[in-house]
Amino acid sequence: MDRTEQSDSDTGPPPTLGVGMVGHAFMGAAHSQGWRTAARVFDLPLRPVLAAIAGRDRTAVHAAAARHGWAAAETDWRALVARDDVQLVDICAPGDLHAEIAVAALEAGKHVLCEKPLANTVAEAETMSAAADRARTRGQVAMTGFNYRRVPAVAHARRLIAEGRLGALRHLRFSYLQDWLVDPAAPLTWRLLREHAGSGALGDLGAHIVDLAQHLSGELLTGVSALTETFVRERPLPHDSTAARGYGTVTVDDAALFNGRLASGALASFEATRMATGRKNALRFEINGEHGSLAFDLERLNELSFHDHTEPAASAGFRRILVTEPDHPYLRAWWPPGHALGYEHTFTHQARDLIEAIAHGTPPEPSFADGLQVQRVLAAVEESARKNAVHTPVPTQSAQPVPVQPAPAPAPVQP
Question: CA-to-CA distance for 257 and 166, rounded, in angstroms?
Fold first, then answer.
């Protein structure tokens, strides 16, 4: 519900929802923006309160708390999960921490939002999904953070496809292109190490476009044929000084290229790379159906291109839809038509949707099960690439969840 839909009978402030967040870098800043803004734009059944933020570096996490509006800071995520004023745990930490934090938070009775990709392995994702299923019986919800579903133009594309405007789908083309690793002197960060990130461009970027392909089509990928490549295999170790600092081995992919087939037989192609010179955040898709086509470019995120193939050929063609009308998804709460939104609004919409799911007891989308399905596709891509682009089926049945091994408690931080 937005501010124009508030009932005259609504009186008094809504109950609060204490949010605790693990991680405070890029995604932490984006999620903070969403939590701060959601209740100021939408009339929500619960009001999010930024209770506490956690990070390992005491100085950095306290600075982040002050900058982003968090009431308290913790240097151990376990302490954050244990706080009585935290009812929801938002996980923005590296991938190798997702499973342990999520399972602990769910078992502690908290709701959970976890950034994509859900985990580093299918086994971890299965464990998380199973924990979410158990928590669901206790009234808890768990959501995977695929924020691009919340771009109004993308949500409108899904609506058009669901209404049958494209008819039976034939082809889906998705790409996500960035260039931030083109320079071989870029340092070896955690995103370039398999033990922390799980994979490279495949998990970081490919997870988004796999999720969007399945979300928009309403179908699952049944198999893939893939290639991956690491173009820069060694990078400088990060260091504060300018002296010689040595090199470390990159253990993830720089780029992934794969084809797939949907359950209906429709064909899909995917490209994810952090080596596309000149491309900063170019997530693009085109979907072709028997009755029409849709195209989208994140760098023009308020626009959707639509072709209606049922119109006479003499006047038919792609037309631009400016997705800023109040009847478009999420837009009734924002600005007058023609006043564009941006990247940060997707996190506000994500917070709004999760709060609505918590308040009304409805399953969140995307769920941990949805995140698990994407993880299965990513694993199939890696297996296919190891076999040199051999077609690899995507499993559909869950294996027995593997318990997550707890990490050792950190050493006490000196005051």
Answer: 26
**What 3-state DSSP class applies to 21?**
strand
* Closest listed residue to residue 172, CA positions, set 70, 268, 252: 268
CATH number of 15-147: 3.40.50.720
Confidence grade of residue 397 (pLDDT, cut at 50, 70, 90): low
pTM for the model: 0.91
DSSP 42: B
Helices 345-360 & 26-41 angle (0-180, nearest 10): 60
Fold classification of 150-392 is Dihydrodipicolinate Reductase; domain 2 (3.30.360)
**Predicted confidence (pLDDT) per residue in 152-178, tens digit:** 999 999 999 999 999 999 999 999 999
DSSP string, 106-128: HHTT-EEEEESSS-SSHHHHHHH
List the one residue out of 383, 387, 409 whose CA is nearest residue 395: 383
Interval 299-312: pLDDT, tens: 999 999 999 999 99
Amino acid code (one letter) for 330: Y
Cα torsion angle, 316, 214, 113, 356, sign: positive
Output the pLDDT for position 10.
Answer: 56
The domain locations on the chain are: 15-147, 150-392
Which among 204, 196, 139, 136 has a CA at the least distance from the CA of 367?
136
What are the distances in angstroms from CA 276 to CA 170, 243, 254? 27, 30, 10
CA distances (Å), 42 to each of 35, 188, 193, 227, 335, in order? 11, 41, 39, 43, 12
As a whole number of angstroms, the distance between CA 24 and CA 414 comes to: 21
Phi then psi for residue 404, to 5 deg, are -85, 130
CA separation, residue 342 to residues 103, 118, 303, 323 (Å)? 33, 24, 12, 12
CA separation for the pair 121, 194 (Å, rounded) = 11
pLDDT in tens, 337-385: 999 999 999 999 999 999 999 999 999 999 999 999 999 999 999 999 9
Q: Is residue 412 scored above 70 in pLDDT?
A: no
| Tokens, residue 341 | 């939104």
How far is C-alpha 201 from the geometric centre of its chain's CA atoms? 14
